[in-house]
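ugh ok so i messed up the first submission bc i forgot one of the chains. this is the corrected input, ALL of the components this time, i swear. 447 residues overall. if the numbers dont match what u have on ur side tell me asap before i send this to the collaborators (the ones from the other lab, u know who)
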Amino acid sequence: MKTQLLVETPTHKWMYFGRDPEKNQKIIDTNQYLIQSGNQSLLMDPGGIELFAPMLASLVRQLPLEHLTYLFASHQDPDIISSLGLWDQTLPKAKLYAPWLWEGFIRHFGMNNISYEPLPDKGGKLMVGEVEIQFVPAHYLHASGNFHVYDPVAKVLMSGDVGAALEPAEADIFVDDFSSHIGKMEYFHRRWMPSNRAKANWVSRMRDLDIQYMCPQHGRIFRGPQVRQFLDWFDSLDVGIAIE
Amino acid sequence: MKTISQGGRPYYVTAAMVAAELNHTLACCKEINLTASNAQAASSRIGSAALGFKALTHYIDELAGYTKRAANEINQLAKDASKLATETARTATALHYFHAARDKAANAAYAYSMEGAIYNTEENYARLESDFNQVLSKMQVQLLDLKQNLRSANALASICRVEACRVDGRFQAIFVDVANKVDTVAAQIRGRVDTAIRLFDSH
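and heres the new structure output, hopefully the right one now
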C-alpha cells in the first residue's frame, strides 16, 4: 500500500495511505488519512475488511499501535468502516468518532471494545495530541449523517466522498490538471450526491475556510488553487440525477 | 470430539438448523399435551370403566412435559452453540487478517506493537473453541438422552391399546386414537431428533 507524507507542521503530520496494488480489482479504491501528533493519532475512514491487513501493516511502519487512539468514520458505508470489527480487536481502547445518526447501524460491523463517540449534527472538535481538529457537517453529501475533518493549522480538509473520482487504482494521488480531472469525477458527484441544497450549503461554508489540501476518500488530492476550482465547479453542478 | 474448525458446512449453520428442528419438536409436544388432555376428559366422561386409562393420561402428560423441557434446553444450547460458532468464525477471520498483516509488516519499525492484539485474539479463539466444544458435547448427550426417553412413548401407546380393550366398545375408538396419536407424535419427535443428530454427524 502506498504511504505518503502530505503535510508536516511543528506539532503534527498528515499521512496518506492508499493505492494498494494487491487490492481485489472489483472493490473500489479508497484513500485513508492519518493525523499523528505526539502519542496520539486519528485514522480517518479506515476502510473495508479487505483493506484491513495492508492498512495495519502500513500503519505499524509509521507508529506503534498504542499511539493510534482515535478512528473517524465520515458515514456508515462498508468501504468506510466495515473493517471496524477487526479494529475493535486491534485497538480495544480506541474511540470512534462518527455521526450519531449511524451508531446503531455501524455497530453491526462488530464493536465490543472501542467506544462510539457520537457526533452531533452540528459537528464538534477533538484534540489529537497538540492539534485541535474540527468535525465539519457534510450531511447529505452523500449520506444523510455525514462529516468531514478540517485541520485549521495544516489547512487540510478530509472531504469524504466530496471530490471523489473513479479511476484506476494505479492513478497518481494528486490532481495534476483540474480540467482533465473533471471527467473522472462528474458522474460520481451527479449520481452519488443527492441534494443541490445540501451541496450549496456545504460549498458556502467551505469557501470560508482556508484549505490548502482537499483530501477525498476516492481519487486524487486537490492542492492550492485547485480547491477553489473544485468548489466553483461543484457549486454549479446539478446533482441527484437518478430521479430525472 | 469434532472441532469447530473442521471443513464442510460451518458449525454456526448446523447449530441454527438443529435449533430449527427442535422448534418443530416443541410443536409436537403441544400436540401430545392436547392428546393427554383430551384423553383425560374422555376418561372422566366414561367414568369408572376408564379408570386405568385415566392413570395413563398422567404419564402421557409427563412424557410431553419432559420432552418439552428437554427440547427447550437443547434448543437453548443450539442457540448458544450457533452464537459461539459465529463468534469463533469472526475471530478466525480476524486472525487470518492479523497474520496477513504480520507477514506484510515483517520489517516494519513498530511490527511488535501488533503482537499484543494477535496474542489476545489467539487466546480468545482458543477459549471460544473450547466453550463451543463443551456446549456441543452437552447438546449431543442431551439429544441421545431425549431419544432414549422417547422409547417409553411406544410402551405407553401399547398400554393405552390394552386399556382401550377393557372399555365399552362405543368408547374404544377414542382410546385407540389416543394411542395412535402418541405413537405418531413420538415418531415425529424421534425423526426430528434423529435429523438433529445426523446434522452433527455429517460434519
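quick check: Chain A touches chain B through 20 residues (CB under 8 Å). that seems consistent at least. The longest strand of chain A covers residues 2-8.
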